[in-house]
Amino acid sequence: MTLSMRRRPMSLLQRREARAGLLFVLPWLISLLLFTVYPIIATVFFSFTDYNIIEAPRWIGLENYQTMLTADPDFWKSVGNSAYYALISVPLGLFFALALALLLNIQARGIGIYRTIFYLPTLVPPVASTLIFMLMFNPNSGGLMNTLLGLMGIQPQPWLSDANQARSVLIILSLWSLGAATLIFLAGLKDVPSTLLEAASIDGAGAWRRFWHVTLPLLSPVLLFNLVMGVISSFQVFTQAMVIGGTTGDPQGSTLMFMVMIYRSAFRYFSMGYASALSVILFLAVLLVTLLIFWSARVWVFYEGGRA
Question: pLDDT per residue over 94-130, tens digit each?
Fold first, then answer.
């Protein structure tokens, strides 16, 4: 077909089908514009303004970003806390989720029940699970963890009143909801061809070498997906930090995460312009880290046709 050929006019039936298709898609398009595109554009605009909801936004240019980078020590504290949380919780989460998936991949009677049990914590509301962990890590002697330490002859620890240990509790709490990542790893393990594992076994490869040279490379696309989703969710941790440390990030600002910083600026100080600027910075940071992960995926992610 050449470019000079004219396009055939649509028949009446084709026009009706096209209109019907547009009508079916229209609710999704409207929701996309109202609840995704418009909020993004509005956030970028408000980040350059002084806006407190009551008064009309006043254009101030880059003042919010200058205040953030040069005059707000809580900004850098929240950046450090979020980066520390992401660097430790994401690798730990991937490791334990993959280990659980390997355990749940065995063929045994009633294994489906165990898979369900390990997924159930994902369904618990974050506020409820955080309160349970706060009771477990209560710094007083009545807390479960300090009771267990006392049975082993170890002094009670100030879990939630010490800055370093409070961040550790947050990281441990992140491991509570590994069910989703575990199921995704489990689905990836089911797709590993058993013929390759059998061939490696015949060639003399042990269990570790089969995992390292066969299973893990074939599982690398699933690992990439869980890594990206884990990084995004780690930068957006809010409920757990808010319940434990409030808007001040107690103790000593150790639980002041970036999302808590945004919430505090918007709904405690009603500085919507500054909160919008923080949101833009968070978006750019997550975008940059995600792009770096995808760039590095060319080296360590393998598909059936070759590397990524």
Answer: 999 999 999 999 888 888 898 889 899 999 999 999 9
- Pair 48, 62: CB distance under 8 Å: yes
What pLDDT, in 10s, does the model give residues 159-197? 998 988 999 999 999 999 899 999 999 999 999 988 988
Residue extents of the structural domains in the chain: 12-46, 73-307
Tell me the one-letter amino acid at 282: L
**Phi, psi at residue 154, to the nearest 5°?**
-105, 140
What is the rounded distance in angstroms from the CA atom of residue 268 to the CA atom of residue 265?
Answer: 6
The residue with tokens 């707000």 is 72
- Reduce the DSSP state of residue 109 to 3 states and report it: coil
Nearest Cα to Cα of residue 239 among 125, 144, 152, 136:
125
Q: Which tens digits make up the pLDDT trace of 125-137?
A: 999 999 999 999 9
- The CATH superfamily label for domain 73-307 reads MetI-like (1.10.3720.10)
Distances (CA, A) of 137 to 46, 122, 144, 207, 245: 40, 20, 7, 38, 14
147's CB contacts (< 8 A; 6+ apart) are 141
Token look-up 């506020």 returns 127
Q: Pairing mode, if any, of strands 302-303 and 58-59?
A: unpaired
Task: Decide: 163 and 251 in contact? Cβ < 8 Å.
Answer: yes
Q: At what angle do helices 111-119 and 73-104 cross, to 10 degrees?
A: 170
- Report the SS3 class of residue 141: coil
Q: How far is CA 96 from CA 39, 91, 291, in A?
A: 36, 9, 25
Among all chains, which residue has been given the structure tokens 């999704």?
A: 28
Q: Which residues are CB-contacts of 100 (< 8 A; sequence separation ≥ 6)? A: 118, 178, 182, 185
Whole-structure pTM value: 0.89
Are 156 and 150 a contacting pair, CB within 8 Å?
A: yes
